[in-house]
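Supplementary Methods. Inverse-folding protocol.

Structures were first reduced to a discrete structure-token string of length 633. This string, shown here, constituted the complete conditioning input.
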């Protein structure tokens, strides 16, 4: 994530996380807080007071017949212990439910948000860094919510209870405790802020580390082919050292804090023991200097020291949780930073609907799938709705585009692809071929000019409906964990088995699929690693075929297929392309010879346009590319 945003979101992360929790688990959180309150009061106050009562009762015994009062007090004390145990059990059970439910909701919210982010976001962020939010950051939140926050709340209640109990016994000794507590708080605050800063940086560095590891894992073949192992190790060492330095600094602060707090607590214990002894020896002057009028004697000092131990241990426990809270807040900050990313903008209102022709020959919407699609176009000014047949007519007029405003990638690009026509884009790498298709499906929006689909400005068409009308085969295939059938059906989830078989046959994938161990039910994992690159590409073509879209985009669709397979695929894709508007991006010029129009691009400009024969006759750039490729073949 961008470093600038981390600090902003970190400041309000805890408040926002608690709001997120209360919105979903308010009742359970209140019950958990009650359990924490009961547990803390019993542990810090009730037991100490009952111990003092038992001591007084034993000291006042004169014969055996008076033991009944002692037994009664012990029974009350045991009952208090049982209530404390039940409160602790209830707290743990409730927090387990709340924590796991919260993490489940956070992951769902993260994933749902990710589906609405623009492609630009994924271009600018490593996938490993995003994955780190689902793993490291969510786990840091789990640790904070399930353990650190309940323990901190418990500690706060305990401290208040202990202070009240101490005040009941001796105001003078309480003042000594509070004086030392102020020093302990200042030390904890100083060290805790330092730890929080580095724990936050550690979470960011962990995301970068995960991103680098994933990047190298995905490119391990390239690393080994180019014998780049040592350089990869050196780069990893740099990223890892960044994480190491932040982690070391964070834990140095955190590990220093606990022993300092512990020893200051021990020092406080000694100071109180000496002070208490001095007060007792001083006699009547310090008697009854308490809220409850207790005489300051050895029994009171004993109970007071027990409360002091609880006080110092509680402060130590709070300081121990600061690192987990800092990591959790840093993780929550990164998670909420992603959730606050701007959604992909979509102001479209023209939608794609199933259609049919009524008895009068008018196009009307249909509930069932008819194989006929229409654009539902509301006209706000007139208050009417028209239905226009989806044909696949694509126009671009003087289109300019740049991935960043200061660097224009496409300039003055115009074209008109009629239904059933094949448009091919050729040119050197980086000429802007794929960029044109990314603009048609609105992965990016143009800087200037217009793009029309069936005469409708594509900015008016809802992006989901626009993309549903396009079938796309990308150069980089992506297969998902599931069966071969599932991966083909990904193109249209309501496709029948017969339609999947037909699409596979159309892409000439049926034969190799039937030779797989379980045929169409063969499980694919790790992006289809058990298939050849050509077979994976055939499946992606079949996936596009089952979508049955009126516009097809073939982005280097046959680049990973051998020449023999390419001929088979071309026969299938020729059938697939019939009656459809087709955009072909290819380096192999043999695959675009039968295109109706070939556009030659150079540095984002169209420098030549025409059919294969027309461009050869011009003997320009296309002629040079074609004859050069022919000689190589």
């Amino acid at each position: 994530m961008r470093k600038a945003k981390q600090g902003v979101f970190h400041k309000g992360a805890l408040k926002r996380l608690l709001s997120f929790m209360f919105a979903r688990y308010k009742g359970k959180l209140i019950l958990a807080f009650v359990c924490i309150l009961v547990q803390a009061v019993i542990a810090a106050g009730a037991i100490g007071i009952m111990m003092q009562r038992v001591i007084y009762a034993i000291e006042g015994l004169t014969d055996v017949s008076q033991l009944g009062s002692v037994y009664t007090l012990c029974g009350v004390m045991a009952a208090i212990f049982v209530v404390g145990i039940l409160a602790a059990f209830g707290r743990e059970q409730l927090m387990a439910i709340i924590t796991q439910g919260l993490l489940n909701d956070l992951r769902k919210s993260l994933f749902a948000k990710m589906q609405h982010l623009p492609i630009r976001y994924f271009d600018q962020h490593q996938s490993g860094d995003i994955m780190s939010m689902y793993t490291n950051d969510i786990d840091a939140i789990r640790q904070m919510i399930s353990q650190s926050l309940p323990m901190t709340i418990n500690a706060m209640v305990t401290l208040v209870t202990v202070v009240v109990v101490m005040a009941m016994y001796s105001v003078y000794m309480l003042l000594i405790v509070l004086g030392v507590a102020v020093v302990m708080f200042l030390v904890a605050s100083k060290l805790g802020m330092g730890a929080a800063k580095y724990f936050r940086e550690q979470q960011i560095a962990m995301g970068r580390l995960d991103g680098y590891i994933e990047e190298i894992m995905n490119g391990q073949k390239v690393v080994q082919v180019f014998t780049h192992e040592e350089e990869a190790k050196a780069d990893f060492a740099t990223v890892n050292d960044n994480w190491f330095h932040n982690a070391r600094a964070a834990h140095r602060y955190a590990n220093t804090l606990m022993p300092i707090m512990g020893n200051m607590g021990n020092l406080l214990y000694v100071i109180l023991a000496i002070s208490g002894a001095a007060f007792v020896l001083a006699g009547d002057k310090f008697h009854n200097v308490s809220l409850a009028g207790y005489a300051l004697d050895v029994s009171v000092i004993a109970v007071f020291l027990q409360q002091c131990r609880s006080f110092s241990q509680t402060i130590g426990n709070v300081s121990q949780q600061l690192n987990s809270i800092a990591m959790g807040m840093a993780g929550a900050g990164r998670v909420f930073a992603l959730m606050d990313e701007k959604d992909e903008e979509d102001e479209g209102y023209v939608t794609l609907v199933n259609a049919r022709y009524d008895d009068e020959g008018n196009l009307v919407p249909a509930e069932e799938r008819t194989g006929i699609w229409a654009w539902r176009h509301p006209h706000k000014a007139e208050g009417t709705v028209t239905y226009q047949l989806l044909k696949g007519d694509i126009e671009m007029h003087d289109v300019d585009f740049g991935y960043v405003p200061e660097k224009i990638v496409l300039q003055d690009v115009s074209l008109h692809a009629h239904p059933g026509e094949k448009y091919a884009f050729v040119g050197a790498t980086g000429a802007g071929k794929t960029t044109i298709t990314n603009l048609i499906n609105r992965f990016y929006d143009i800087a200037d000019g217009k793009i029309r689909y069936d005469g409708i400005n594509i900015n008016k068409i809802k992006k989901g409906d626009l993309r549903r009308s396009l079938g796309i085969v990308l150069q980089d295939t992506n297969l998902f964990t599931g069966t071969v059938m599932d991966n083909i059906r990904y193109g249209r989830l309501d496709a029948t088995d017969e339609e999947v078989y037909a699409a596979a046959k159309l892409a000439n994938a049926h034969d190799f699929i039937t030779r797989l161990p379980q045929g169409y039910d063969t499980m694919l994992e790790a992006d289809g690693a058990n298939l050849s690159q050509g077979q994976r590409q055939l499946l992606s073509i079949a996936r596009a075929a089952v979508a049955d879209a009126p516009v097809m985009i073939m982005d280097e669709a046959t680049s990973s297929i051998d020449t023999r397979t390419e001929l088979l695929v071309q026969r299938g894709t020729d059938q697939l392309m019939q009656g459809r508007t087709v955009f072909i991006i290819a380096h192999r010029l043999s695959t675009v010879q039968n295109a109706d129009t070939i556009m030659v691009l150079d540095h984002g400009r169209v420098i030549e346009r025409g059919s294969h024969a027309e461009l050869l006759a011009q003997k320009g750039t296309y002629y040079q590319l074609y004859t050069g490729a022919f000689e190589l073949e």
